[in-house]
Amino acid sequence: MNPVQQAVVWLNDPLNWTNPGGVLDRIGEHLSMSAAAVLLGCLVAWPIGLWLGHSGRGGGAVVLISNLTLSIPTLALLTILPLTFLGFGRPAVVVALAVFAVPPLLANAYTGVRQADPEARDAARGMGLSGWQVLRRVELPLAVPYLAAGFRTAAVQVVATAALASFVNGGGLGQIIRAGFGLDIAAGGGQIIAGGVLVAGLALAAEGVLALVERVATPRPLRRTRRAANRRAADATAGN
Amino acid sequence: MSFHLSYRAEPGNPWFSWQYVRDNSDTILAALREHASLTGRAVLLAALVALPLAVVAYWYRRLTGPILALTGVLYTIPSLALFAFIAPYLGIGAVTVLTVVVLYALLVIVRNAVAGLNQVPPEVRDAAEGMGYGRWARLFRIDLPLALPGILTGVRLATVSTVALVTVGVVIGRGGLGQLIFAGFQNNFYKAQIMTGTLLCVLLALVLDLILAGVGRLLTPWLRSRPR
């Protein structure tokens, strides 16, 4: 039986889905830690990115942070963070994943505010709006397409990276692949491929769903800028 | 005669230890060598495949969309899943790691090279055509040199992310410096070993990036002498 057939058999065994530590459990773990990481990333990156974009400073810092996190291996953060005050367990994994969500969120929030039409900004100022009001009522709504694009990029990347949490027994769908490799390739080939299909499927599904969310979140008149935002987001991050 | 293990000499579990580096320099250097050679081979192979693909996407506009869409979908697939698809066929070894990282590097380079080629100004293309350049001559003497900054950006991004990606190879025991990090984690959470592996990874990425930036400056002298 070749590995693909083995994988089909593995996926068709209901116990592999419903057992404790089975596929359903793993999907739950995968999604809950991804969601926590993206939420944490948003809470940190969006305020900073919006503020930096509003004040027009720190563009260099945004690029530097993106480049720096690009060169840090996920494995390193996953192994280092549990040894700090965070301790072993879910919080360390979530923080490690959130670190990789920050660059796209930050870069898109920053460019989103920077690209706001300067004339709209001037007009708001002329109407007597304070700096805070300009950010909240003019720049923020105009930055929404960028924020949505950054959210999508970050979330998809976190869902993809969360598979690596299995290296430190952090749970998630990667655990299935790791267990398969633990068996040895002849016996575990089917499980390895089945795990790969699940991980890849989840990432692609997240991409599809979030593309829809992005489209809904973007007001119709601003949809033209969506492609540019996507491209920027793609430039800001590479590697998972 | 006392014969104690070196890491016992330093009490506790420090984040960095020169003694660890000295005592294990052979292992560390071997891991670094494997990591660097995997990265180098991967980027070279990726560039060799990516550039013709980018040129095809540039010449045949109808293929640009499908090529970029395909690279986008491939890029969404997590690295661990790619390992899972490839390992049962290519086995446990450097070839599998190389294949996975080449695929990712390929995508990054293709996307940036296509963007670079599409940024060649149409006037320049028209002028070249008017001067009687054929398709190939225009490619090598006009299009590619003008797209060089974009291509180099792609190669640099690909290099830096490849250095990080190679560490995922620990899943099949061939992760270069990742092996060092992972072994440190399993070996009673030996912080000095984890940190040494991490620092070397980041340094390797930084050094390779600087080298490529230097090569880029040498290859594009016209960008330097631009009056400010």
Concise structural overview:
The complex is a heterodimer of chains A (240) and B (228). Chain A is mostly helical and 240 residues long.
Structural features, described:
- The complex is a heterodimer of chains A (240) and B (228).
- Chain A has a single domain, classed as MetI-like fold.
- The longest helix of chain A is centred in the first third of the chain and has 33 residues.
- Chain A contains 11 helices and no strands.
- Chain A has 240 residues and is mainly alpha-helical.
- Helices cover 78% and strands 0% of the residues of chain A.
- The C terminus of chain A is likely disordered.
- In chain B, helix 6 crosses helix 8.
- The termini of chain B are far apart.
- The longest helix of chain B is centred in the first third of the chain and has 35 residues.
- Chain B has one domain: MetI-like fold (Orthogonal Bundle).
- With 228 residues, chain B is mainly alpha-helical.
- Chain B contains 11 helices and no strands.
- The chains are: A mainly alpha (240), B mainly alpha (228).
- Chain A: InterPro entries: ABC_transp_perm/SBD, MetI-like, MetI-like_sf.
